Amino acid sequence: MASSSCLTKSKTSIIHHLKSIKLNSHNLLHTISSPPFPLPKQTTTSPIDSAIVCFQSLYFRRQLHSATSVNNEVHQLPAEAPLQQVLNYPVGKVKFTPKLAFTAGSTEERVPCYRVLNENGQPITDSDSLEISKELAVKMYTDMVTLEVMDTIFYEAQRQGRISFYATTTGEEAINIASAAALNNQDFVFPQYREPGVLLWRGFTLQEFAHQCFGNKYDNGKGRQMPIHYGSRKHNYFTVASTVATQIPHAVGAAYSLKMEKQDSCVITYFGDGGSSTADFHAAINFAAVLEVPVIFFCRNNGWAISTPTNEQFRSDGVVVRGKAYGVPSIRVDGNDALAIYTAVSGARKMAIEEQTPVLIEALTYRTGHHSTSDDSTKYRSIDEIEQWRGDQNPVKRFRKWIESKGWWSHEAESEHHINIRKQLSQAIQAAERVEKPRIADMFNDVYDVLPKNLMEQEAFIRKTIKKHTQDYPSDVPL
């Protein structure tokens, strides 16, 4: 116990003594060329004094070693270390600058818009995009006219109370047909609700359009959807959903599956400028960029998200600049120029498949019709503005001028086609009206393999209700 106490006192005394020793840098460096520190002479033989002398010896030798090391390192340093101009951060190599500068929110010069035909249907320059066959050009034009006439007839049918709802593609016929012409039928389509022309191009008949709008038993959706919510497994056209932009992440997921299966095809998803303001768009395009999937993001920027103009949606230069922010190749196209759209989508498809990359296309256009039959667009824009776009920038008229200049179309052919399509649509509507509605059972099937008890009870209840109140239900709904 005595020895333990002695050692404790010795430790305390030593620490106190060492703290009292101060060597400045001048003295420390001076010792490099001087003899070793003289150790104090031992005048006593007590254990504490001996311990102090021992610790002093160790302390001075350590200081001498450190000072020598520092001096060597000082002499080995270059006169001036080179400055690093670039550093490879996890996000990539970045250059340094001494200038404090914030990137501009926008630039005065807007992204240019790719165009092939001017308003008069004349090529603005020699281009490979003009090298399309007569057969292809005529089919593109006739389908644009068919879509135009179909919209007119179905819109009138809704106003007559024959169908409950409709939305036209007026002013966007070139976007529908030209983009579809540039795709392969094996490519998957995730539409918004203003792309029936893509389905028309792939062979969906006027009668099938009528069946869907009237929601009869021949409707692919079995009457469960609103009119114009088309879908066709046969044509790789996913069913339209009213919810804005939900189809965009679905399209990216489908494209990822094509990549994993090494398919020689891609996915295209359509959406409006309003859709680009949703979180789904941003999540989807980033997902596509990171996973490098073959998907084409086709934005129909027609200036209006129902009644909300683009200047109240975003401050950026449209939608095309967002592609660069996510590392996605992008292009802005004249949405009223069928040849420009055809060329851009052809190039985007080739790039998406061969390079396994997403591509963003922003087609600038103008919706000259109402948003839907539930909308009156004259409440938020002038009639003069609408009429100006219908005249000067009409995509159907512009393409007609071009094919007529090639000698591929005539006034007689135009008149004959209009009469033929109107006749077909009239017959299709009359036929669809006569077809009975889907069975009551179709309200409950196609979800569960075996119908759960609660749905069986609901089905029984609705059957009982219809029988009890027959006068309140359509007679063409089979029980």
Automatic annotation (TrEMBL):
Q: Give the reactions, separated by semicolons, that this protein catalyses.
A: N(6)-[(R)-lipoyl]-L-lysyl-[protein] + 3-methyl-2-oxobutanoate + H(+) = N(6)-[(R)-S(8)-2-methylpropanoyldihydrolipoyl]-L-lysyl-[protein] + CO2
As recorded in UniProt, its EC number(s) are 1.2.4.4
Q: What is its main location?
A: mitochondrion
InterPro entries registered for this protein in UniProt? Alpha-ketoacid_DH_E1_comp, DH_E1, THDP-binding
Listed GO cellular component terms? Answer: mitochondrial matrix
Where is it located?
Answer: Mitochondrion matrix
- Cofactor(s) for this protein? thiamine diphosphate
SUPFAM superfamilies in the cross-refs? Thiamin diphosphate-binding fold (THDP-binding)
UniProt entry keywords in alphabetical sequence: Metal-binding, Mitochondrion, Oxidoreductase, Potassium, Transit peptide
- Keyword ATP-binding in the entry? The reply is no
Dehydrogenase E1 component domain ranges (all copies): 143-439
- GO process annotations (BP): branched-chain amino acid catabolic process
Q: Which GO terms describe its molecular function?
A: branched-chain 2-oxo acid dehydrogenase activity; metal ion binding
Subunit and partners? Heterotetramer of alpha and beta chains.
- So what family is this one in? Belongs to the BCKDHA family.
Q: What is this protein called?
A: 3-methyl-2-oxobutanoate dehydrogenase (2-methylpropanoyl-transferring)
Lineage of this protein's species? Eukaryota, Viridiplantae, Streptophyta, Embryophyta, Tracheophyta
